[in-house]
Amino acid sequence: MTSLAVGVVLCLTGWITLYTLLCNTNGSHGSEWNCRLVTLLHGILAVCITAYIGYVDGPWPFTHPGTKNTPLQISAMVISLGYFIFDMGWCVYFSTEGPVMLAHHTMSILGILLTLSLGESGIESCAVLFGSEITNPLLQARWFLRQLGRYESLTGEAVDVLFVVLFVFMRIVVGGRMLYCELISPRPMFIIKCGGVAMYVLSWVFMVDIGRFAYRKSQSKYRCWNDQHRLATVNRHDGKTD
């Protein structure tokens, strides 16, 4: 456990150092811009490592939940734990996130700590990290596009659509299947299963927010299209009158 604690402290120090360097070299963009760069880097790194764990190193999380943690799984969790502690502190200090995101970070930290302390179910934690972080680059891209004034474009539309589709597929569909495999397997501890249920419920909370966003955006697009269609009809009518 001492080595794990040292590893977490080193990773936390690494994320803080990266953020500090970005602020010093890229200060004109502000604190949130640089923090989101760190978030983007963590998302890409976490997805790459956990994808390798799930698809190459193994075991397959759907068939082998509750197995002993491997060194690579431990490394992935330690890296992400250091990041989540950093980002949680940043969000609390700058008061940028609401209770749902803070609950997500809190559950992620507690879940990783539990998995590391038990020494098992690392493959499930890595699978959850993969499913959670795979949409992260799109979420950050959306924010950066807004800051650059390019969100209202075809690129912004593509990012939104891809984010919603990927979130629904990974968090709800694949996540639901993962939770089912976790619950019916006799290997994972009961507390791990409870954590899986809590994370899946939180995914549905996010899903409700995303559904509301998608509805509002579709309504706005429909009204815009309807106004353009009405204007085009009036113009054609005026042209015939002339």
UniProtKB/TrEMBL annotation:
<feature type="transmembrane region" description="Helical">
    <location>
        <begin position="76"/>
        <end position="95"/>
    </location>
</feature>
<protein>
    <recommendedName>
        <fullName>TLC domain-containing protein</fullName>
    </recommendedName>
</protein>
<keyword id="KW-1133">Transmembrane helix</keyword>
<dbReference type="InterPro" id="IPR042512">
    <property type="entry name" value="TLCD5"/>
</dbReference>
<feature type="transmembrane region" description="Helical">
    <location>
        <begin position="151"/>
        <end position="170"/>
    </location>
</feature>
<dbReference type="Pfam" id="PF03798">
    <property type="entry name" value="TRAM_LAG1_CLN8"/>
</dbReference>
<dbReference type="GO" id="GO:0016020">
    <property type="term" value="C:membrane"/>
</dbReference>
<dbReference type="InterPro" id="IPR006634">
    <property type="entry name" value="TLC-dom"/>
</dbReference>
<keyword id="KW-0472">Membrane</keyword>
<feature type="transmembrane region" description="Helical">
    <location>
        <begin position="37"/>
        <end position="55"/>
    </location>
</feature>
<feature type="domain" description="TLC">
    <location>
        <begin position="28"/>
        <end position="219"/>
    </location>
</feature>
<feature type="transmembrane region" description="Helical">
    <location>
        <begin position="190"/>
        <end position="215"/>
    </location>
</feature>
<keyword id="KW-0812">Transmembrane</keyword>
